[in-house]
Amino acid sequence: MDEYLYFRGKKLRYGYTTGSSATAATKAALLYLLDDGKHDIPEVTIKLPSGNPLTISVNSLEKRNDCTLASVIKDGGDDPDVTHGLEIYSKVSLRNDSKINIFGGTGVGKVTKKGLPVAPGNSAINPVPLKMIRETVEEILSEGFGADVEISVPKGEETAKKTLNAKLGIIGGISILGTTGIVKPMSEESWKSSLAIELKQSIAEYDSNEAVFLFGNRGKSYLEDNFTQRAGQGIIISNFVGYMFDRACEYQVRKVYFIGELGKFVKVAGGIFHTHSRVSDAKMEILTANALLVEESTENMKKIMASNTTEEATKYIEKTEVYSLLAEKAKQKCEEYCRRNGWDMEVETLIISAEKEVLGNSRHFFDNFKRKRK
Q1: 0.90 cut: is pTM over it?
Q2: Residue 262 pLDDT
């Protein structure tokens, strides 16, 4: 693609999704089939969900007895995308009725869990790519004719091991994805979308109006070690606090148990809802201000403020009640955030150390956490 954006001073090229790749391969295969393989097709132009055109090179074409096979090389642009460079095939055969069947072959995953946009038992081809492929076929075929379309990715099963598919209940290959058809370099959108799906699945699987958010692997380990029966509910949300509470409100979650490290929770206690250091880095200021509120010594506050990390700062904290104060403030900020979204949600918070020991918690965190509310 010829579109770019600038990220941290670098010029980065846009790419296109597996959904756009599958659509382009399908168009090439169908055109080649209708032409009886007489003319080469070097490229095709597809219509994106926005209505804009996108031209994609065709990698291979093959005519068989009753079908054609075309492939496209998936181009993720300058995004760190594990599907970049995969060869995505579409095999098309005609039908004498008006049905259009679209399904996955080798290397396209099968859905096994509820909560995804695709029902269990079906190929992991998401609704937008499915619509793009269907509309492309409909535009080309004459009235009364249909087609069987099989999308396959020879290296899909191997590549899927580098994705969250197994955790999401997608087995045997990658997903055919893309809501816009375009891959924006350095985009967090696909990551966040996976987390939203994970949350929806957790709600469905546990038949619960509760969710468990974790900042990272320390929180996950703490949950597995101390609350085995709740470990499966834990969702590692990384830095996307605001986004995940938005989704929790959207899915009408009534209570969130939130577990994680001090460095992240300090930011949430200060009303920061994207905790990556390139977005926000006021943790020492917030920690020092709260240390003042619990009457930490001036000497210690100076050391806290000068610390490189919150882990270092803990060495200078004598008034350990500051941790529960921060937990209560984080709880309050999250609940206020949800109320601004028009949803009344209860949040309980637990702050752990690098050694996965409890530092502080909101007052009622442990009251009901051991039992799952239906």
Answers
A1: no
A2: 95
